[in-house]
Design a protein that fits this description.
Layout lengths: L8 E4 L3 H13 L5 E4 L12 H5 L14 H8 L2 E3 L2 E7 L4 E6 L6 E4 L2 E4 L3 E3 L12 E3 L3 H13 L4 E5 L3 H12 L3 E5 L11 H14 L3 E3 L5 E4 L6 E4 L2 E4 L2 E4 L3 E3 L2 H5 L23 E3 L6 E2 L6 E2 L4 H15 L12 E6 L2 E7 L2 H6 L4 E9 L11 E9 L5 E8 L2 H14 L5 H4 L15 H8 L2
Parallel strand pairs: 1-2, 1-7, 2-3, 7-18, 9-16, 10-11, 10-16, 11-12
Antiparallel strand pairs: 4-5, 5-6, 8-17, 13-14, 14-15, 19-20, 21-22, 22-25, 23-24, 24-25
Helix pairs in contact: 1-8
The structure holds flavin-adenine dinucleotide.
Length: 452
């Protein structure tokens, strides 16, 4: 059984945030002992790649393990104990209480600083967890292993996905690629409910025109039928047969441990931290999906769980837990995903979020050919939408749907938002043009000119 000795910096949770925090802490203070306590059997996993194991583009869940504890110890000199659940924090005695999977007894270990990186948990509003053999979340490698094992053993091919956020859509694509017949159900009227309507409409159009997926949006009542397995779902009275049900209904911050230790939560319900990732309790830092962050555009606390944020925040928390004074600045969040033959990416805030914060906005959108006609098919277009502050023309948010160019467009928009630049700078910019590489008139130039 695991028994850490001379413990100094303890990290609770060993995924994106925890692994980054530990590696940074050890680098900053090589003489201090750094330990990670991780509840699951796996440590440092490629969670974002889960949908691509569903599609079999990645062959096995095992390929999602970035590090084994042995390799982390060898390369980073940090000890990792998997199957070790932290069950309490005694903030006065500066001790954590943990239990390993092999034993029912609890053990205490002291810390001089602690990083809480407990991440998030899958939302389960219909309370399906653990009740049915054919119901799955797509949150962890363990979830994925269960799913892969189950799909290999059944003949049925009907999958119902609850939730049309980006993870539900990625999973849908994965199942279609494997030859399953896929139905998506969502309470909202459109997919990607947290995006502006025009973007959600475009995504709905892709689902309708480019896929065989059945979609049921605006569903108010769901009922589940079956004993050990869900055999049918009633969506507002319409009976749908299913062999597999996936809940992709978002995640909530995993704050049980923080709450029990008296650590303050913020308005979003996630752990509130200072700009140096300090929690409300002395010597306890926090990072990743268990935390809220400050949105750089609105200055508001927001809950936006992303691997990119978790890793960056974990780095700062690790540095500071080891004695540093690093700042985790208010953040512009950018994300994207593949949707069959298209890609979707966003950055900054939506128009709705900006207006909610009292900003007076203007938005503009355009859809253009990806390249000159000789090099791009008619349907190979790029859609872009910019949200700007009306008086200053400062860029607040942007969304793009098209080919892989959307990543570059989004990153460029992020830079503009970060530098608080007006979109006027795009109007006079010289963009790359070469027929097989980039269009003659750049989408960002078209969008900026439409604003004046
Ligand atoms: C299917 C899927 C696709 C995604 N795709 C993307 C993407 O393309 N881009 C992107 O930026 N983000 C993506 N994300 C989000 C990204 O995976 C998360 O933001 C990231 O994993 C957060 O890392 P974290 O370490 O904060 O939390 P988590 O990944 O939730 O890890 C927390 C860890 O803490 C452990 N833990 C919890 N409680 C305890 C305890 N009491 N004791 C010990 N250990 C504990 C858990 O077992 C877990 O391993 C995706 C997420 C999913 C589910």
């Amino acid at each position: 059984m695991y028994k850490p000795a001379n413990t100094d910096i303890i990290i609770i949770g060993g995924n994106a945030a925890g692994a980054a925090a530990a590696a940074r802490a050890k680098r900053k203070a090589p003489k201090r002992n750094v330990f990670i306590l991780e509840a699951s059997p796996y440590f440092s996993t490629a969670t974002c790649d889960i949908p691509y194991v569903v599609s079999e583009e990645i062959k096995s869940p095992r390929e999602l393990l970035h590090f084994t504890p042995e390799r982390f110890l060898l390369e980073k000199n940090v000890e990792v104990s998997v199957n070790t659940q932290v069950v309490g924090i005694d903030t006065k005695a500066k001790q954590v209480l943990y239990r390993s999977a092999q034993s029912t007894s609890e053990h205490a270990v002291g810390y001089s600083s602690l990083v809480l990186a407990t991440g998030s948990v899958a939302r389960d509003p219909y309370q399906l967890a653990g009740k049915y053999t054919n119901h799955f979340f797509l949150k962890s490698v363990e979830d994925l292993e269960r799913l892969v094992h189950f799909t290999a053993s059944i003949a049925g091919k009907n999958v119902i996905i609850l939730g049309a956020g980006y993870i539900g859509l990625e999973a849908a694509e994965g199942f279609v690629k494997k030859g399953f017949s896929v139905t998506i159900i969502d309470q909202a009227a459109l997919p990607l409910n947290n995006q502006d309507i025009e973007v959600s409409q475009k995504v709905a159009e892709i689902l309708k025109l480019q896929t065989q997926i059945d979609v049921f949006f605006g569903v108010k009542t769901l009922k589940f039928f079956g004993n050990n397995a869900i055999t049918k779902i009633s969506a507002d009275g319409r009976l749908l047969e299913c062999d597999i049900v996936i809940s992709a209904l978002g995640v909530s911050p995993n704050t049980e441990l923080a709450k029990s230790a008296g650590i303050k939560l913020g308005v979003t319900g996630a752990v509130k931290v200072s700009s140096k990732t300090e929690t409300s309790v002395d010597k306890i830092y926090a990072a990743g999906d268990c935390c809220e962050i400050t949105d750089a555009v609105t200055g508001q606390p927001v809950y936006r769980p992303l691997a990119t944020t978790a890793r960056a925040m974990g780095w700062v928390a690790g540095e500071n837990a080891a004695g540093g004074r690093e700042v985790f600045a208010p953040r512009i969040t950018s994300s994207g995903f593949r949707l069959f033959s298209s890609f979707v990416a966003f950055t900054g805030v939506t128009e709705f979020q900006a207006k909610n914060r009292g900003l007076i906005t203007q938005s503009v959108s355009a859809e253009v050919g990806r390249l000159v006609p000789f090099f791009a098919k008619r349907h190979e277009t790029t859609f872009g939408r910019l949200v700007v502050e009306k008086n200053t023309h400062r860029l607040l948010g942007a969304s793009f749907i098209g080919g892989k160019e959307v990543a570059g467009l989004t990153d460029m928009a992020t830079l503009l938002i970060q530098q608080k630049l007006p979109v006027t700078v795009l109007k006079d910019m010289s963009f790359v043009y070469s027929p097989p590489l980039a269009p003659f008139t750049h989408l960002l130039s078209i969008l900026s000119k439409k604003l004046f």
